[in-house]
Design goal:
Layout: H1 3-19, E1 31-36, E2 39-45, H2 59-75, E3 86-94, E4 103-113, E5 117-126, E6 132-141
Keywords: Hydrolase
Protein name: Thioesterase domain-containing protein
GO molecular function: fatty acyl-CoA hydrolase activity
Length: 145
């Protein structure tokens, strides 16, 4: 898949996220700014629905972002019969907090995709100062059932 087609796929995913009634709607404010060839870059301005009771970026939302955006990056990879797969392992390291109205930058990358497993990584950064907020690693089973 060309980078242009990959980014078109991400734009279509944005439309889905805005219109779905499933859990994915928590990402309805996500804006893809680049992607293709196994990568995805998105932005999100933090609103009250993204925060925990202490007013910081919710860890569960961070997990959802890593899980979802790495999957979307994988979907842009030019691999025949690629499936979005199911998560086998999701690991996050929380390095710094973010608060309401902070803009975050999400960068996801496909490290390797084999016959049965895909290995993905993600960084969530504060757009203002580029500080690393969350580092994520995601492994997905993508083989045949």
């Amino acid at each position: 898949m060309s980078a242009k087609k990959g980014f078109e796929l991400l734009k279509n995913i944005s439309v889905y996220l805005k219109n779905t009634e499933t859990y994915d709607r928590v990402l309805s404010s996500l804006k893809f700014i680049d992607g293709g060839d196994g990568k995805a870059t998105a932005e999100l301005t933090l609103k009250p629905e993204h925060l925990n009771k202490m007013g910081g970026l919710h860890g569960g939302l961070s997990s959802t972002i890593v899980d979802s955006v790495t999957t979307f990056a994988l979907m842009t990879k030019d691999i025949e019969n690629i499936r979005s797969g199911v998560s086998v392992d999701l690991h996050l390291t929380f390095l710094k907090g973010a608060k309401e109205n902070d803009e975050i930058l999400i960068q996801a990358n496909t490290i390797r995709c084999g016959r049965t497993l895909a290995f993905l990584e993600c960084e969530i950064r504060n757009k203002k100062d580029n500080s690393l907020l969350v580092k994520g690693a995601h492994t997905k089973f993508v083989g045949q059932n």
